[in-house]
Automatic annotation (TrEMBL):
Location of the HTH gntR-type domain: 1-53
PANTHER family documented for this protein: GLUCONATE OPERON TRANSCRIPTIONAL REPRESSOR (PTHR43537:SF24), TRANSCRIPTIONAL REGULATOR, GNTR FAMILY (PTHR43537)
Top-level taxon in the UniProt lineage: Bacteria
InterPro entries (alphabetical): AsnC-type_HTH_dom, GntR_C, TF_FadR/GntR_C, Tscrpt_reg_HTH_GntR, WH-like_DNA-bd_sf, WH_DNA-bd_sf
A Pfam family: GntR
Coiled-coil regions, chain positions: none
Gene Ontology molecular-function annotations: DNA-binding transcription factor activity; sequence-specific DNA binding
Protein name, as recorded: HTH gntR-type domain-containing protein
Keyword annotations: DNA-binding, Transcription, Transcription regulation
Organism: Devosia elaeis
Amino acid sequence: MSQKILPGSRISIDNLAREMGVSQTPIREALSRLEAQGLVVKTHLIGFSAASQMDRTRFDQLYELRLLLEPFAARKAATLITTEQFDTLRRLAAEMAVSGQGRVSYSDFARLDGQFHDLIALASGNDLIHETLANLHTHMHLFRLFHHQQAASTANTEHAELIDALEARDADRAEQAMRVHVERSYDRFSTFFS
């Protein structure tokens, strides 16, 4: 995530084990988990390497899928979200607001943002949408592409609108707020390809 290991670079299990002072087994297990998330690639007879950076085509496809699923998930969540889920959403938004003021690293913001979106997908009551969005690992891949503090503070404003719509249980407004948020996120991150 920090790009200490550059995209496409080979990952030496031996070197990581020595560097971290552990055996190769936990390193292999960790790399397998990262492979499942698409952050690491395993090539037969060669080993592991860091995944390549997302290209423009993949980036556009990712956002097309998000625009199909996330606004619908927000619409459903507006009527189905539980008090406990809503309280967790507010807590995550508060933690991201601190992050947006530069007090927390952007990687922490990306993790919290991922949890925020995951919770809305979960609150939609549609397991397939939730699983699909979770398997995209969108936030980790976007963090690897590009990060800056302004993106965090702008996203926080958009999250606040989404929370207001969910609290009002206004399905139309929640759907529109999520659509605007995903579209603006696309605009923010697409500058990477300019």
